[in-house]
Amino acid sequence: MWKRLVYSLIGIAGVLLFTAIGLDRWISWKTAPYIYEDLRLLPHRQVGVVLGTAKYIRTGVINEYYLYRIQGAMNVYNSGKADYLLLSGDNALQSYNEPVTMRRDLLHHGMPAGDIVLDYAGFRTLDSIIRTRKVFDTNDFTIITQRFHCERALFIAQHMGIQAQCYAVPSPKNMFSVRMREIGARLGTLADLYIMKREPRFLGPQIPIPARQEEVPQGAQDYPAVSPEQLLEIQPKPDGASADVLQDMR
To answer: Given a cut of 60, is residue 220 above it in pLDDT?
Structure first.
């Protein structure tokens, strides 16, 4: 009896594992035609959406996922493949602000402030993609992130009828654990889209791109889609919350 139970559990686990891997491969196959790794082949879009992640991991070392996304964003902009960059990330704490951190680094590399748009409520990939369409009134844009993340982001876009493409930037070596977590993230995305039918945690008023700002005062929000007060209501977090490399798995 116990052997039969053990064999049954092993069989169920095997079926679940096979299904999870199959769904993971299906998402990769479905989105592959819209992913570009060669910048020369990337079609022009008015807006490039940079998906946020932590700049540093827990040990204080710079996060290579972040570094490659910033480099990729600058390459897309400087090559004329995008006219504006929308920086979408988490801004739940004054001490942890992904969009402002990305903006600071892009400005340091010479990008004009007027071509940078900030989205402070990109808490998850789903939020970033849907808010780009519904808040920033952009239906045809280029996502900038690693390939595995491109696939999940594009799957969300396709499900929502958004005509997005993705520029896949390099991934760090030895990312086996991150890739395994991505399978779980994709299963969560399927549940969000098909079962829970989730929407972004916050939408707010529509703020179309472009809306040129030649000079952005220091400390000011380029596109104040979410106020600090609203962020506190949406996603309160204790001070000193640590960020690590797995932030890019949102």
So the answer is: no
Rounded Cα gap, residues 75 and 80, in angstroms: 9
Instruction: Taking residues 210-215, report their average pLDDT.
Output: 51
Q: Which two tokens stand for residue 108?
A: 């340091």
pTM of the model: 0.82
Which residue's structure tokens are 């064999």?
Answer: 7
CA distances from 171 to 28, 56, 149, 226 (A): 16, 16, 10, 31
Which residue from 142, 127, 111, 157 is spatially nearest to 209, judged by alpha carbons?
A: 142
State how far Cα 123 lies from the chain centre: 9
Element holding 206 (H helix, E strand): none
Residue where the block lists tokens 């402070």:
120
How far is 38 from 18, CA to CA, in rounded Å? 32
Cα dihedral 193, 120, 34, 182, rounded to 10, equals -60
DSSP lists the bridge partners of residue 28 as: none
Across 206-215, average pLDDT: 66
Say how far residue 98 (Cα) sits from the centre of its chain.
Answer: 11
